[in-house]
Amino acid sequence: MVPKGTLERELLKKTWVCERKEKVSLSVREKEWREASSSESLRFSAFSKREKKEKVCFRHQESDIASGTPPHRGRLLEYGFCYNLPGEAVSGEGTLGPSSGIIVPLPSKIFNQMFRLLLVRTRFRLWFPDAGTRRLLHHEPKFKTLIPSSSSSDPNFTVSFLRSSCGLSPSVAIAAAAKTNFKFSTNAESVLRLLRNYGFTKSQITVIASKQPFLFTFNAEKCIKPKIDLFVTAGFTATALTNLLSKYPFILKSSLERKLSPNLRLLMTILSGNRQAAASSIARSAWILLLDPNKRVLPNLETLRKYGVSDANIARLFTWCPRAITLEPGRFSRSVALVEEMGLKPSKCMFVIGINVVSGLTVATWERKMKLYGSLGWSQEETISAFKRSPFCMLLSEEKIRKVMGFFMKNLKWEPCRLASLPIVLSLSLENRIIPRYTVFNILTTRGLPNTKLSFSTLLLMSKSDFLEKCIDKYSDVVPELLEAYKVKS
């Protein structure tokens, strides 16, 4: 029976040609081998058991050809290699036909091991073919048309889910769908159901889906629920928890064992279990939960204790400036050393603020600010003195510094040294605080009212409620336009 198909006919034709050539070749080489070995009285039966194990013989299965079964779909073909005494190959490819019955020893152990390995690899390729072999044997095309097997792998399903279930707009849903494809719709639905059970609002779920759509491919019970439970166990309220995770949803992608759990435990220890302070710290910088504590936080803690920073100040640093504690240890150590060198005491709260300011500035930026204040009339000592009183003066933009100092020097005739002694006024808003209160102060001074005894700096640093009570409401009957002037300017 002749198998159907062009490939089978060509393979069968080539097989019979190879078999015929092999028969002739084997007959000639067998004769030569027998003649060469007869002088030494060597026969096939004289080989030792060990030598017999090192023989490789051909096993041809003619029944496959008779039945018309192609070799790649029939029984396994046994491939082998025969060698004569000089080591020349008698046959390379496995051919089909009656067994020649010739058994020839390999010339050496090395070649025996080499071609035994090659034999195993050849058989393995037949039993476990790769993609190229499968295409050759089974006529598989190289390219296939990909058809979604289910609606869950369809991009339209992703967009539809994000729009209908998560509340995303069409454009945002398409952009989010481009970031991920949901493998299983059950995962997406279970994650959505889990978030709702923990009190996330629809708007918060929308924010999470737009920022981290990949979260909806996670296993809700195994990957997401344990991380949320970690914050619940730590004492976070439902409001604090949902606000935090909707603002930083990438927290849910971090490792629970290596990152979230040890960092949160350390944070709660430093803050003496203050949940509100912990929530505030994470809200200011979520990186405090995402970095390896052994590489950043713990070395920086050791630096603070080496300089004698109290536990209370360390807690303030974690609460007010958590970004600073997550800096690279070398940079953090240099910042602490510089703050101490400028005269700030580790026991004071200003030391913590100084660390936060210095750690956020490069050397070039620091030098540029020093030159700026110098050009406006401050000496280097006055600049450092101003930093010690209000470290935030080094974070202000050049434009703001020039505007505020120009206003005080022009309208109030303040000297630069006076501003250096009260640097906090540089941080105040010129439009919303300084100018409106200056307008009220100017009216009171013109009318000769008692509050003119108060300095403008005192009025400027009052809280809004105190200023309204002592400077506006108190004289509203005498100067009715006072409140109007204050509102217009503010």
TrEMBL record:
<dbReference type="GO" id="GO:0003676">
    <property type="term" value="F:nucleic acid binding"/>
</dbReference>
<dbReference type="Pfam" id="PF02536">
    <property type="entry name" value="mTERF"/>
</dbReference>
<dbReference type="InterPro" id="IPR003690">
    <property type="entry name" value="MTERF"/>
</dbReference>
<dbReference type="InterPro" id="IPR038538">
    <property type="entry name" value="MTERF_sf"/>
</dbReference>
<dbReference type="GO" id="GO:0006353">
    <property type="term" value="P:DNA-templated transcription termination"/>
</dbReference>
<protein>
    <submittedName>
        <fullName>Uncharacterized protein</fullName>
    </submittedName>
</protein>
<comment type="similarity">
    <text>Belongs to the mTERF family.</text>
</comment>
<keyword id="KW-0805">Transcription regulation</keyword>
<keyword id="KW-0806">Transcription termination</keyword>
<keyword id="KW-0804">Transcription</keyword>
<keyword id="KW-0809">Transit peptide</keyword>
